[in-house]
Design goal:
heterodimer, A: 461 residues, alpha/beta, seven-stranded mixed beta sheet, five-stranded antiparallel beta sheet, 11 helices, 24 strands, 32% helix, B: alpha/beta, eight-stranded mixed beta sheet, 30% helix, elongated
Chain lengths: 461, 379
């Protein structure tokens, strides 16, 4: 970061100043300078000596630059009189070389130790794929709308060539003779928050963090076991919300059918999606078992001895995304003849399953489903509702940025620190475009139900 | 009423007894079972044996001396009312459904409730409830680990009866399956979960076993093993050739504790039946006896610590119970404290070979360390 040439230039300037100061006899001893940084507030403190008639702070501006070499401004000074400390609030991105000099009637002291600092409060946004562009845009827009970038900048990490590079970002690089060292995100107190995409990212990041941890925000993770993960805020509604909605819809179908309504569950277990789908299935079971055990206890026969209509699960079958498995499921479905089937899994695998079972009434979990592929089928799909589903990810990103901006706005300049930001984030409830967001919010979003209409997906509930 | 000089025992063990006055109000320990059938009688017998008292099936009240009385009730519906009676200092219950009444809003919560062989995982929410047997969560974990050891990455299915006990085990197994996926373990693959009955059973007459459906699905999905969660009749319908069952539809069967023990003539090669731990010894053929024995032993220990009083303080008795431990040496079914029910899940697994010979092994599944099952040895 700071190469030898730059340091030499600063040292020469300071030595010249010192040489000019040495014309008097018995000057004070060199003070010892100590810097304390809290948020954007910087305090310089030193050991006060009785034989000193004043102090002077020498500084050179060296602001933060994302790219290119460090640029050093001219050497300047401030007269501090006899005070024993000096505190000021700076702008994010400011950086300085500073030293202190004491003086009395007999002359100037040698320079204190030379210190360097750089204020670079930032939110690291780890959204590397092309699919993440809309999320990135949303976050940037919220920060721009609320003027937050003046105080905390966004560091968008949109690519890394290999895992080693990502590791370096997180763990940092040790300084060598050839290369300057670099603090990783984990240990860099300037990193106030880390924004990630899905369950895997959120787990990977949160599992590495230590005691003084940044806030972690996950844009799309829904796995319920993340709900109690320390310092992790989920922006999308958890699988329990989706499962409740699915079951509610099915129960309604059963009630409208006015007879015993049988349904099967198909659980997608292809790699990459299986944690999501089993978690969603687990939440679905919670609903199913609650109702089934209640019915067992209370019965469901009316006074005339008739069995009241009820949605009954007739089996769960796993689907690995292959055509062979889809065919097996088709033959099982033929034998069981359910009135409907719930699919929880990857939307990209569903087409294979659907093609072998086109006549079933399907209720499918949230995902991207091409209208053309399913326009002739009886499909009910869950959709994470934003009121504007075309711009869901942009809006979700905007909510991430909006939430962070609101937290940052409530913190004074001296409180822009990891611990205070995390503490404040836990208190705030934010009304976003895609629902209410916050640590204490039980349902931070909702699902709508769409069906394939004549010209596209239509919202039915 | 049979009067037992337990006071002597307490003196020997060092408990300080002031007096045993006939004017003293009784501190009642009520043992509630749903019926008077052999498994319930095993509970009565075991409880009293653990207290050093001989059971007599014609007697329903036992004076332990020193102001303590044991009362036997064979109607679970009385449980809530009993908790509201101030002289009742502790309740002992047997099944998940009867012990669950202790969690009811109307039940008093300031007294000790000891669940002997109830396994429902929902009982863990009761802060005044001491569970002596491992819950269905621990059992499901033990069964899943056994399947995992036996079949590696092959496919398995669950067949279950759609009712509370079986759904609880089902949920436990799915939780375990999910946890292993989450950890990145490549274990057995769940292929299907199928209910045994057409509808949720209202009563036995309305059950309709979907045997042909279940068999057909298992064959089509080509699974190596089945985990069965349900009861003996349902299991027989599935596997007993004399009533139309077919055990050969898969190679391996793993069965929950409600079916334990399976009689030798109903067993078959590839069958493993999980039961609550059945210690060696001929005191009883029912494992309920041994858990109740530990309940009796535990209660005596609490009484020793509580001492004599003519003014029962249930809350204090409960507090003492929470700090009481029955060691491995003292208990017949493993160490007991308020925290141990799922710390160690101890089970006896009944295994059959091709000649229908029965072997058993005791397994201890240490949930706290998630280290899998450790065979304790083969009997």
């Amino acid at each position: 970061m700071i190469n030898g040439t730059v340091k030499m230039r600063v040292s020469i300037s300071l030595l010249m100043w010192m040489a000019l100061s040495l014309v008097y006899a018995l000057p004070p001893e060199a003070p010892v300078l100590r810097l304390e940084i809290k948020g954007l507030q910087v305090s310089a403190k030193w050991n006060y000596a009785d034989d000193v008639s004043g102090y002077r702070l020498l500084y050179a501006y060296a602001p933060h630059h994302n790219d290119g070499p460090l640029k050093i401004g001219p050497l300047q000074s401030i007269e501090l009189g006899t005070q024993a400390s000096f505190t000021t609030t700076l702008r994010n991105g400011d950086g300085f070389y500073v030293a202190l000099q004491a003086y009395n009637a007999d002359g100037n002291s040698p320079l204190s130790n030379i210190e360097h600092f750089m204020l670079d409060k930032k939110i690291v946004v780890l959204l590397p794929t092309t699919d993440d562009v809309a999320l990135q845009e949303g976050i940037k827009k919220a920060f721009a709308d609320k003027g937050t970038e003046q105080r905390v900048r966004l560091e968008i990490v949109d690519s890394w060539r290999e895992n080693d590079e990502l590791k370096k970002m997180f763990y940092g690089v040790r300084q060598t003779d050839e290369e300057a060292g670099r603090r990783g995100y984990i240990d860099d107190p300037n990193v106030l928050a880390i924004v990630t995409r899905n369950t895997g990212n959120a787990l990977a990041v949160t599992s590495q963090l230590r005691d003084d941890r940044p806030l972690v925000v996950s844009c799309t993770a829904t796995t319920t076991l993340l709900k109690n993960r320390r310092g992790l805020l989920l922006m999308a509604p958890s699988n329990s919300v989706q499962a409740d909605r699915m079951y509610q819809h099915l129960s309604l179908e059963a009630a409208n059918d006015e007879r015993m309504f049988k349904y099967a569950v198909i659980l997608g277990n292809d790699p990459g999606i299986v944690i999501y789908s089993v978690d969603l299935y687990n939440e679905l079971l919670r609903n199913i078992f609650l109702v089934e055990t209640t019915i067992q206890v209370k019965g469901r026969v009316d006074n005339d001895g008739n069995v009241q209509p009820f949605a009954q699960m007739v089996g769960t079958f796993t689907f690995d995304g292959t055509e062979a498995q889809a065919e097996k499921i088709a033959s099982v479905m033929e034998a069981l003849a359910p009135d409907a089937a719930i699919y929880v899994g990857s939307s990209s695998s569903f087409k294979t399953l659907y093609d072998k079972n086109p006549n079933l009434k399907w209720v499918v979990s949230d995902g991207s489903y091409k209208y053309e592929d399913f326009k002739d089928g009886e499909i009910r799909r869950l959709n994470f509702g934003s009121g504007d589903s075309q711009n869901l990810y942009q809006n979700l990103g905007y909510d991430v940025g909006g939430f962070l901006a609101e937290v940052i706005d409530t913190l004074g300049d001296s409180r822009l620190e990891r611990s205070t930001l995390l503490e404040k984030a836990k208190e705030i409830t934010y009304e976003g475009k895609t629902g209410t967001k916050g640590f204490a919010v039980e349902k931070n979003g909702w699902y709508e139900i769409l069906k394939a209409g004549d010209e596209g997906w239509e919202k039915i509930d | 009423m049979v009067k037992i000089p337990i006071i002597l025992k307490m003196l020997v063990t060092g408990a300080f007894i002031v007096c045993a006055s006939s004017a003293m109000a009784a501190n009642k320990i009520v043992c509630i079972t749903p019926d008077d059938k052999p498994k319930s009688q095993a509970i009565h017998e075991g409880l009293l044996a653990g207290m050093g008292v001989k059971y007599d099936s014609s007697v329903s009240s036992y004076d332990l001396g020193n102001g303590y009385v044991v009362e036997i009730q064979t109607d679970s519906s009385t449980l809530i009312a009993k908790t509201q009676q101030k002289e009742v200092i502790a309740v002992v219950c047997r099944t998940s459904s009867s012990c669950a009444l202790a969690l009811d809003e109307a039940a008093a919560k300031d007294l000790l409730v000891v669940a002997t062989t109830a396994t429902s995982s929902s009982l863990k929410v009761g802060s005044n409830l001491l569970r002596l047997s491992p819950s269905n969560i621990a059992q499901a974990r033990a069964i899943y680990q056994e399947i995992s050891t036996d079949i590696g990455k092959q496919r398995f299915a669950m067949v279950y009866e759609p009712e509370t006990y079986a759904l609880d085990l089902y949920n436990g197994l799915i939780a375990e399956y999910f946890f292993e996926l989450f950890l990145g373990v490549n274990g057995p693959i769940l292929a299907a979960a199928i209910p045994l009955h057409e509808y949720i059973n209202l009563d036995d007459t309305q059950k309709s076993v979907r045997l042909s459906h279940v068999k057909s699905v298992l064959q089509q999905l080509d699974v190596e093993a089945v985990a069965y969660f349900g009861f003996s009749d349902g299991f027989a319908a599935l596997t007993d050739t004399r009533v139309g069952g077919d055990p050969t539809v898969v190679n391996r069967w793993y069965v929950g504790d409600a079916v334990y023990p399976v009689e030798p003539d109903k067993g078959f090669a590839g069958l493993k039946v999980f039961g609550l731990y059945q210690p060696k010894g001929d005191e009883s053929v029912y494992n309920q006896y041994y858990y109740a024995y530990d309940a009796g032993k535990f209660l005596i220990k609490v009484i020793e610590n509580y001492g004599v009083t003519d003014n029962p303080e249930r809350a204090k008795f409960l507090e003492i119970a929470k700090n009481t431990e029955l060691s491995d040496d003292e208990a017949k079914t493993g160490r007991k404290t308020f925290e141990t029910a799922d710390e160690f899940g101890i089970f006896t697994v009944q295994m059959f070979d091709i000649e229908r010979n029965v072997q058993s092994k005791a397994v201890i599944f240490n949930a706290a360390h998630a280290g899998g099952m450790t065979p304790e040895g083969t009997e």
